[in-house]
Structure formats: structure tokens, C-alpha cells
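We give the entry.
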Amino acid sequence: MILAGFSLLEWQNPAVKSAADRLAESSDAIKYLSLLPMGILVWTFRHARSMLFPDADSRSILQRWENYQTFRDIVAVGVFYSIVFAMIGVLSGMINWKGDTIVFMIWMCASIAGSSLCALSMYVAEIEMTENFKKYGGKL
């Protein structure tokens, strides 16, 4: 993700520069796009909780699992990355976009892409957990 941002910065295609300049002219677009990672963070918090305490686990099998602490740490790292990307998104919305607009656009795009990637990984993990609880829950 970082390498993609730096390559965009070095490449500086005129189309990307034009898009960044047009985005800089619209303060509403900047405001809403910068808050998108925050919304994704809220969604990630909700799904992290449902991963740690799934509805399908009525007998608390997951919490008694010997690797539960490691699993909990992995979920916490995912939430941490979502927090970092949300902060980058909010900061990119607070910056004055009058300077080099392509840099600010790269920060905003990186925050949206990063937080979306974190949310997607949480969602896929939650689906797999639900499938496993439905498949093996009665046998444990």
C-alpha cells in the first residue's frame, strides 16, 4: 500500500494530478471521503466483537480454546490498523489542500483502501468462523 502511494507520487500522471486538483476544489467531497475510514472503523469494531463472542457459540467454546488469546491478539491488531487508517483519513480531511494536492489525495486513498482491506479481512474471517461453528459446533 505504501509502495503504491510512493509510486503514484513519483509517477504523477497528469490525470491523477487533475483528479486531485478537482477533489481539492470540493470541500464536501473531502469531508465525506475523509470520514469514510471512520465509518469503516465503527463497522470493524462491531464485527471484531462478534468474532470474539460469536452468537453461534452459545457454550463459550471459543473462549475456552487454548489459542483464544492469540486469536484475540490477531483481532486486536486488525482493529489497531483500522484505527491508524481512520486517523490518517481524518487528518487528511483536516489538512489545507491548497499545496501539493496529489500528496493529500494519496493519503486519503491509502486510508480508504487500508481501512477497507482491514474490514474485508475481518468480514472474511467472521464468515469462516460462522461456517466452522455451524459445521463443527455440535461436535465440540
Remarks:
- The helical segments are 2-11, 14-25, 27-52, 61-64, 68-94, 101-136.
- The chain has a mean pLDDT of 80.
